[in-house]
């Protein structure tokens, strides 16, 4: 391919041209707005250079919501293409690009930052810490994730989107079958964002193990903190596998090595094994923190302590171990033999047991509880039956003999979405409504929230239940069209209606944010839900230093016991508080990584060398930088506490 031809969109269409114009106008509008309102300094001081875990959590949250709509647009286009037989809305190549980017965006760039948002914001507060263990590393983690996301999102207007599926199986992802630079974007976007995620894993594990408040033993940690700890341990073990696989795939594409080729000693199945050794634990990296959020919400709005705390912790540990022992069920039909299939079929069904334990623990928590139906609680209650449907169909897919019928059909697509949407998206939306007042000082409107919860949950069933039936009838996934004689039309039309319903539900969330920002009361106090855990013991919004005095923990639910049993949570007197300074290095390093990835994607070797030097220069600068942070004085603390009603 000629050098400059690489920058062209290989499969242009009116939609892509319209996207180019929209991106250009949006960038111009943002720059014009920041200039007109003189917000460049504010943006740099308060957000681009921040190392505050709470602001970083909010930036993760904004990114996740934006990517939710980005991936949702792809989903709507896919459903529209399949809504009628022999439709010509999209051609085969454009459809391939859309379902590839939909999967990547939703898993890596929507679900992951959603859980990172709550980990960043909530975990230090739940354990009574001032910040995470490594604040600057935390900022760098976010900017690496963000730049990876932006790198993937420019692919469809510069060079072409990835088109080998979100799993990017070789040889489909090789230069022979994927000639454009789209798969290069895949390799580098995931590599850069994955590096940020790995850093977050190390940071969060250190924070939880080393920075808990006095008296908070491991078995007194809140359930969301436990779920975050387990998920981050999985990250530390799983993400290096993805890093190595992406490096090997990049070498195959850019330097003609033969790790995954079907000739010269390569092995295409090696990619499938590497990918799913990371990919299946990734499912639990996403779901376990959502389970932690459900545990906090169900306990709070049942007005009783969580049933079976030890069994909940034990089930998460067992899930984390088994998650590394089931990867082969993703390719039962690829010829590894009956014995291997049988072993992984058993481990697949075994992992359903600890998951079932958690379901029953939540149900027993609800039993005899004084249940209060709020929007977060409604999401949590709707999650249980819908997720159970997804889980049961997962057991069906786990039977290797039956999987020959289900595999590569829409049945599998339905199962995956019926697990991930209630298991992750519902959890994140429940957490969004639950923690919104702690983040911003006011509640989201409960009436609008309940409408959106019902619309999203019913639309989920409407969108994906028909896929079970069309899959059993033989509709293959990844097909961009089908004939009328197959009879798939009615199922796909119903799914299209469900997809539109989901879009309406997510638009209601946007409207709720707008409405509540304008009209909601700011007088909600620090504990609007009558909650039980430590993050609700400080002000809303949370001060920079989190707690004026370090809390003293002597029970599993210290804040609840302080309210109901008179336990003393804060003792002593105000002392000056040490805090880290803001830094522009993480943002600058993220930008350099963006340029570094872009240079390699297009084989621009001089810029690649220059940006590599820039990366090491930033690291060296940080290594020799003499910055010991700053102190917040007692007077400042007293002033803040007085102004917030302490």
Put simply, the count of helices is 20
Please tell me what the overall shape is: globular
Number of strands: 2
Strand content: under 5%
Oligomer: single chain
Rg over alpha carbons: 25 Å
For the record, the CATH class of the domain at 1-292 is Mainly Alpha
Mean pLDDT over the residues: 92
Q: How would you name the CATH homologous superfamily of the domain at 1-292?
A: Cytochrome c oxidase-like, subunit I domain
Tell me the distance between the termini. 67 Å
What is the helix/strand order? HHHHHHHHHHHHHHHHHEHHEH
CATH hierarchy: architecture of the domain at 1-292 = Up-down Bundle
User: Pairing-aware structural class of the strands and helices?
Assistant: mainly alpha
What level of helicity do the residues show?
Answer: 55-70%
Uncertain spans: none
Largest sheet, described in full?
2 strands, antiparallel
The side-by-side strand order for the widest beta sheet comes to 1-2
Tell me the CATH topology of the domain at 1-292: Cytochrome C Oxidase, Chain A
In summary, what is this structure?
The chain has helices at residues 14-36, 40-48, 53-82, 92-126, 135-153, 182-210, 223-255, 268-302, 309-322, 338-350, 352-366, 375-398, 400-406, 410-440, 446-472, 489-519, 558-564, 585-601, 605-624, 634-643, and strands spanning 577-579, 630-632.
């Amino acid at each position: 391919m000629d050098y400059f031809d690489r920058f062209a969109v290989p499969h242009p269409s009116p939609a892509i041209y319209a996207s180019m114009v929209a991106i250009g106008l949006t960038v111009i509008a943002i720059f014009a707005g920041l200039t007109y309102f003189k917000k460049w300094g504010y943006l740099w001081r308060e957000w681009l250079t921040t190392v505050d875990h709470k602001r970083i959590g909010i930036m993760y949250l904004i990114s996740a919501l934006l990517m939710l709509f980005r991936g949702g647009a792809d989903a709507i286009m896919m459903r529209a293409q399949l809504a009628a037989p022999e439709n010509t809305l999209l051609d085969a190549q454009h459809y391939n690009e859309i379902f590839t980017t939909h999967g990547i965006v939703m898993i890596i760039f929507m679900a992951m930052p959603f859980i990172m948002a709550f980990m960043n914001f909530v975990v230090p507060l739940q354990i009574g810490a001032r910040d995470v263990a490594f604040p600057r590393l935390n900022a760098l983690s976010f900017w690496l994730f963000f730049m990876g996301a932006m790198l993937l999102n420019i692919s469809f207007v510069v060079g072409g989107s990835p088109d080998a599926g979100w799993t990017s199986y070789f040889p489909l992802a090789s230069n022979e079958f994927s000639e454009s630079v789209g798969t290069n974007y895949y390799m580098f976007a995931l590599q850069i964002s994955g590096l940020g995620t790995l850093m977050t894993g190390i940071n969060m594990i250190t924070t939880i193990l080393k920075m808990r408040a006095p008296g908070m033993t491991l078995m007194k940690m809140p359930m969301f903190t436990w779920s975050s700890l387990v998920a981050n341990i999985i990250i530390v073990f799983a993400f290096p596998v993805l890093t190595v696989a992406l490096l090997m795939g990049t070498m195959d594409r850019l330097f003609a090595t033969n790790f995954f080729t079907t000739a010269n000693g390569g092995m295409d199945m090696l990619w499938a094994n590497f990918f799913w050794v990371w990919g299946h634990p990734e499912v639990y990296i996403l779901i376990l923190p959502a389970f932690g959020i459900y545990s906090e919400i169900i306990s709070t709005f049942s007005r009783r302590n969580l049933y079976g705390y030890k069994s909940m912790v034990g089930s998460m540990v067992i899930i984390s171990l088994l998650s590394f022992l089931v990867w082969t069920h993703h390719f039962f039909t690829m010829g590894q033999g009956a014995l291997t299939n049988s072993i992984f079929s058993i481990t697949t069904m075994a992992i359903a047991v600890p998951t079932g334990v958690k379901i029953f623990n939540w149900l027993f928590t609800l039993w005899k509880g004084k249940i209060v139906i709020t929007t977060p609680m409604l999401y949590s209650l709707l999650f249980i039956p819908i997720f159970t449907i997804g889980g049961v169909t997962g057991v069906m897919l786990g039977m290797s003999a039956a999987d020959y019928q289900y595999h590569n059909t829409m049945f599998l697509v339905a199962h995956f979405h019926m697990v991930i949407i209630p298991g992750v998206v519902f959890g994140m939306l429940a957490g969004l409504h639950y923690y919104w007042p702690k983040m911003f000082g006011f509640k989201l409107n409960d009436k609008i929230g309940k409408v959106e919860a019902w619309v999203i949950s019913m639309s989920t069933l409407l969108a994906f239940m028909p896929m079970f039936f069309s899959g059993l009838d033989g509709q293959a996934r990844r097909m961009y069209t089908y004939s009328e004689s197959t009879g798939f039309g009615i199922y796909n039309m119903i799914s299209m209606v469900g997809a539109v319903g989901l879009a309406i539900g997510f638009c209601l969330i946007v409207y709720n944010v707008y409405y509540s920002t304008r009209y909601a009361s700011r007088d909600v106090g620090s504990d609007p839900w009558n909650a039980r855990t430590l993050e609700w013991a400080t002000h809303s919004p949370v001060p920079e230093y989190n707690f004026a005095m370090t809390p003293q923990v002597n029970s599993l639910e210290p804040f609840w016991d302080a309210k109901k049993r008179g336990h003393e949570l804060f003792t002593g007197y105000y002392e000056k508080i040490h805090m880290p300074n803001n830094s522009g290095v993480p943002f600058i390093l993220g930008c350099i990584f963006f340029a570094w990835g872009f240079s390699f994607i297009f084989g621009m070797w001089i810029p690649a060398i220059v940006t590599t030097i820039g990366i090491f220069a930033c690291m060296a600068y940080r290594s020799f930088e003499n910055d010991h942070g700053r102190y917040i004085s007692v007077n400042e603390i007293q002033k803040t506490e007085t102004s917030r009603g302490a």
